Amino acid sequence: MHPLLLGVTDLADQAVVLPAIFVAAIALAALGWRRGAVGWLAGAGLTLGAILFLKLLAGACGFVVESASGHTASAALIAGGLSWMFLGQRGAALGFSLAGAIAIAATRLALGVHTWPDVLVGALIGVAGALATTHLTGPPPARLRRRPLALALLVCLFSTYGKHLEAEAFIHRIAHTRGCAMP
Predict the structure, then answer these.
(1) CA nearest 68: which of 131, 120, 127, 143?
(2) Phi-psi region of 66 (alpha: psi -120 to 50; beta: other; left: phi over 0)
(3) Nearest to 141 by CA among 19, 26, 37, 17
(4) Could you tell me the pLDDT band of residue 100, with boundaries at 50, 70 and 90?
(5) Over the chain, what is the mean pLDDT?
(6) How many angstroms separate the Cα of 176 from the Cα of each of 25, 57, 62, 80, 126?
(7) Among 43, 93, 139, 173, which is disulfide-ready with 84 (CB 3.0 to 4.6 Å)?
């Protein structure tokens, strides 16, 4: 596997994404934007919950979308959500969300770990999650100090990048032990 592709796709590994979500929420609350912290956690929870649900359903029942891309959804959520926090513009959030989804989807396809339907579903869920986050948080306050937020996120990224959370294997095991309850 190509090291550059792996390096890019690792940015959206759950070992990087989950801590970034919690660090951002803690930083937003500490900086006084409590609605932002709660809205961010809610948007992230809805996004990742939707991916988990689809992965479990696809694994247990074998639907057309073999396994919605969590990496793609996470990249769209993080890129769109963070751009909203820093720029406060929905258009920018949408653009960054799409760019994040496209970048990671391309790596997932090139690495052969997902199909087109998988990355499209992941992208749709991630972009929807990022846009939902902009509504759940409301506009960032003008007084929001963004440098401490950026510093906290950079420290988080440097601390977690390159680590891997074996979520896929765990989800796969759960899905295949339950079976499909649908007729």
Answers:
(1) 120
(2) alpha
(3) 37
(4) very high
(5) 90
(6) 33, 10, 10, 33, 25
(7) 93
Residue 19, token pair as written in the block: 């801590």
Q: Can you tell me the distance from the alpha carbon of 35 to that of 41, in angstroms, rounded to the nearest whole number?
A: 10
Sign of CA dihedral 167, 165, 156, 23: positive
Place of tokens 């990249």: 75
Token readout for 43 is 């948007």
- 11-28: per-residue pLDDT in tens? 999 999 999 999 999 999
Residues 6+ apart with CB under 8 A from 113: none
The Cβ-side half-sphere exposure at 161, using a 13 Å CA radius, reads: 11
Q: Residue 90 to residues 37, 43, 54: CA-CA distances in angstroms?
A: 17, 15, 27
CA Rg, the chain, in Å? 16
3-state secondary structure 21-79: HHHHHHHHHHCCCHHHHHHHHHHHHHHHHHHHHHHHHHHHHCCCCCCCCHHHHHHHHHH
